[in-house]
């Protein structure tokens, strides 16, 4: 049994937290979810939207309450906080700010580190704390990383740094209180490999969306304005209706991506095994940037994309524009970090949980879903 009592899930209306919440509910686990109001939508309305998204019934055991992880006490009244302390023995902490931008440094720190402390201090010394981190909390140096917490100083961005600091802090808090801690470190997460469904369209989706934006803008220029801007950027209409976009991207490392359905199955298996410590939830067959570009070209009628170490020296307005869009993601295109998942596989292999590779059909399924949802504009949770 995953949990005898209710599980407090933070980030329940987010991408990973939403899929985990849905699976807990399907298994009959009662979920208590602190949810922020958003615009004109109350926490209950957002919770109902989540249930509809996953085709769950309105009587599913999901209790939504108004709460903010980045506020002391999660912004709860003392009576509510006391009730949670009395009822909740297991926390699944998924809430996070995933921004890489340096200008959002304070916000990322407040949500990912101080928010974690707020949640732990509100719940108190519970029995089990499951913390959703990231494989990239290990630091930026190339090499093989085992499932353990080690001191690190160098990171590619504030998100990685904040998740490492959060791991250090929650380890300290749980050690002091005697709480069993499980740290889950997934690599880059994309949509459901079987259905394409997703609640977020960043990370793997970002370069795809960028190239589709360039393609569609240039096609309009070619058709409606004679192609003057397209020619200036080196974009042209090729054979069979394909659009040539001559752009070079870095590569050479591993692009470790996992579908959200694999992540959820892994979390459930580790929870059922009452896992403790650090677990890498990663692919043992990482993709490459070359494969990703081949998939983009195959699915969307684009040519001219290539991996090259000269991507910075290639010059030209188009290359500069793409570099500007994708600069924050480039470290993951030439990543030399390898994540050893021996501890995780010792649980997942006997449970029959395996990671599907990002194949062309899976990629197509996920991207077509994203386009149908207008990259998230068609979803309100």
Tell me about this structure.
By secondary structure, the protein is α/β, with parallel strands linked by helices. It has a domain at 7-186: 3-Layer(aba) Sandwich (Rossmann fold), CATH 3.40.50. Helices cover 41% and strands 16% of the residues. It has helices spanning 15-26, 43-53, 78-87, 105-123, 158-177, 205-224, 228-233, 260-272, 289-300, 317-326, 330-333, 342-348, 360-372; strands at 7-10, 31-35, 62-66, 90-93, 128-132, 143-145, 180-186, 188-190, 236-237, 243-249, 257-259, 277-281, 302-307, 337-339. A 7-stranded parallel β-sheet has the order 3-2-1-4-5-7-12, with helices on both faces. Helix 1 (15-26) crosses helix 8 (260-272) and helix 4 packs parallel to helix 5 (158-177). The longest helix has 20 residues, at 158-177. The radius of gyration is 22 Å and the shape is globular. The mean pLDDT is 95.
How do the strands and helices of this protein lay out in sequence?
Layout: E1 7-10, H1 15-26, E2 31-35, H2 43-53, E3 62-66, H3 78-87, E4 90-93, H4 105-123, E5 128-132, E6 143-145, H5 158-177, E7 180-186, E8 188-190, H6 205-224, H7 228-233, E9 236-237, E10 243-249, E11 257-259, H8 260-272, E12 277-281, H9 289-300, E13 302-307, H10 317-326, H11 330-333, E14 337-339, H12 342-348, H13 360-372
Parallel strand pairs: 1-2, 1-4, 2-3, 4-5, 5-7, 6-14, 7-12, 8-11, 10-13
Antiparallel strand pairs: 9-10
